[in-house]
Write a structure and sequence with these properties.
A four-stranded mixed beta sheet has the order 1-2-3-4, with helices on both faces. The relative contact order is 0.20. It has four helices and four strands; from the N terminus they run H-E-H-E-E-H-E-H. The protein has a single domain, classed as Trna Endonuclease, Chain: A, domain 1 (3-Layer(aba) Sandwich), CATH 3.40.1350. The protein has 121 residues and is of the alpha+beta class. The N and C termini lie close together (6 Å).
Length: 121
């Protein structure tokens, strides 16, 4: 599965099974014209921001941030820096490879049982 497919399936599962959880995806990975990229940077977009941000405090953390990678994918230095900075500031943050890892981090953080319906991840 591509990162887009993993993230899309992960979001679909959350929306179907736990629709009241407050979260948002960022524009990471989106392809756009240079003029659009300059515009969102001017508006505050930062390189490497995690793909999905959960605005729910749990287990002593202020929220959860997940960077989605395909199996075998490697995070950029900016993505690693975001993860580390968020952890130091009291947020749970993870770089997940594949749908299974995304689900595992979600379930551990929320103490829920999000159930994947796809075999591949």
């Amino acid at each position: 599965m591509s990162e887009h497919e993993i993230q899309s399936e992960f979001v679909r599962l959350i929306q179907e099974q736990y629709p009241d959880i407050l979260f948002c995806a960022t524009v990471g990975g989106a392809r756009m014209r240079i003029s659009e990229a300059k515009k969102i940077k001017k508006q505050g977009y930062k390189k490497g921001i995690p793909d999905i941000l959960f605005y729910e405090a749990r287990q002593g953390y202020f929220g959860l941030a997940i960077e989605v990678k395909k199996k075998g994918g490697r995070p950029s230095p900016f993505q690693i820096q975001w993860r580390d900075d968020l952890l130091r500031r009291g947020y749970q943050s993870a770089i997940c490879k594949g749908l299974d890892e995304c689900v595992e981090v979600f379930n551990t953080y929320f103490k829920l049982q999000l159930q994947p319906t796809l075999c591949a991840s």
